[in-house]
Every structure is written in C-alpha cells, then in structure tokens.
Amino acid sequence: MKEAPEIIPNILLVDDRPENLMAFRAVLQCNEYNLIEVASGEEALKELLDKDFALILMDVQMPGLSGFETAMLIKKREKSEFIPLIFVTANYLDAQSSEEGYRIGAVDYIMKPFSPDTLKAKVQFFASSDLLKKTAELIKASQFALDNQKMNYGEQAVEFAIDSLSEALEDDDLKNFDN
Asked: Among 4, 57, 12, 58, which residue's Cα sits nearest to residue 33?
C-alpha cells in the first residue's frame, strides 16, 4: 500500500521590513512548517490565490495595503476567510488598534519585540490544528471513496445476479418451449 504524503503546513509571513522577516524565520524555521515570506499585503494576496495556509503572521503598518486592509480582503474570500491571522506590530499598541485587529478577524495581536517561545507556541497550536483538520478531511474523503467503491461493487454484484438470473430464465424458457 502507498504511504500517504506528509502534510507540512504553510505559514505566511507578511512584513515589509526584511529584518522582521528574518526574526520570524530565526524563531520558526524547522521541518514542521513551510515558511512563505512576502513583503507586502499585495504579495500576500497573490500567495493566497494558489496556496493553502495554516496561519498568517502579519505586520499592521506596511506601505501600500496596511495589515488591516489586507486582512479585510483575506477575510472576504471564501477560500481564506477561516485562516487564522495573528497581527504582529511595534506601532499600533493601543487598545483601539488591537480591538480593530480582532474585529477584522485576527485570532491574536502580538506586540514587537515578541517572545520567541510565545510565538513558537502559538504557531505550533495553529499549525497542529490545521494538520488535524486536513487529516480529518482526508479520512472523510477516503471514507467517501470507500463507500462509493463498496456501492459500485454492490451494484456490479446485483447486475451480475440479474444477468445470470435472466440467462437462466431464458435457458429454462427455451427448454420449456421445446417440450
């Protein structure tokens, strides 16, 4: 039997400052995640078009689309509306800004500089939740395929039985006709 492919969750890192992306990478780099780094909200939206993500870590203040504006667009798309999003910021530290982040759909709002251990724990939580969800989806799809296969075998068996019975009846009818 073929072994199932390993599922490695994608984590989208969005920050316009290379040193912040480097800090994320230094803390999170491991074999458990595939880190995708982009420098703008626009780039983040492009990545979301063709990849699935377990989590998005995003800066609030960026040129072009801000983190808040990008998050609003992400949450409007059916494919991406349920991706957990954590804002990470050094500037928008007031209660009103964090409330705005939560209102938009963030699951957390982290202040820079962040605690590496706290960030790792939060990312691990969301990545393993995503892995559990994908595993459940694979099991459900496999069960559906198995049920369909059983149904097809059942239908084939019934068709075979009907054909066999029809042939037997035809043979009996011919024998009775000859008598």
From this structure: 12
The one-letter amino acid at 136: A
Closest CA to 91 of 4, 9, 20, 178: 20
Q: What is the DSSP string of 111-150?
A: ESSPPHHHHHHHHHHHHHHHHHHHHHHHHHHHHHHHHHHH
Query: Cβ contacts of residue 104 below 8 Å, gap of 6+?
Result: 68, 71, 72, 75
pTM above 0.85, yes or no: no
Q: What's the CA gap between 32 and 51, in Å, rounded?
A: 17
Question: For residues 151 and 58, is the Cβ–Cβ distance under 8 A?
Answer: no
Q: What are phi and psi of 89, to 5 degrees?
A: -145, 155
Domain boundary assignment for the chain: 10-134
pLDDT tens per residue across span 97-131: 899 999 999 999 999 899 999 999 999 888 887 65
In eight-state DSSP terms, residue 77 is S
Q: How far is CA 106 from the centre of its chain?
A: 16
Q: What is the largest CA-CA distance in the chain?
A: 101
Q: By the 8 A CB rule, do 59 and 36 touch? A: no
The answer to whether domain 10-134 has CATH 3.30.70.330 is no
